[in-house]
Write the structure tokens for this entry.
Amino acid sequence: MSAVANPATVAGCLRVGAGFSQGDRNWIAEQFATLDARLAGFHADATELEVSVKDREARGQKVTLECWVAGRQKIVTTSSEEDLHAALNDVRDDLRRRLNDAKTRQEPRHNKHLRDNGLADAGADRAEERDELPAADPSRADAETV
């Protein structure tokens, strides 16, 4: 992945929605600070986070964290934990997992060279055009075949 000139951070992208006040924003940003490493791969001006809570401190409270990254589908995570701190940690961890999963789905597997050079789809696309399997890698000629 190439370096991003203006990386996204929780402090720069977080909005507080229903159920939270602007006074809560700094406390929530501290709770979500571990997301900074995951968000750093995205541009700050193309990334938004919004956290909200319904029925705060009530028995059926529901915390929602929404994440918008340009060019990707919106990710929504929710938690029904009764403790607000635990609910915030729950949505944070779930968002981190889902961002990692989304990144993994977009990267080529099993070939670091292709990942680093962005050449992953070139060979597969050409093979699809010819409706055949990609050519064998000559550097693996000594590999055992079944």
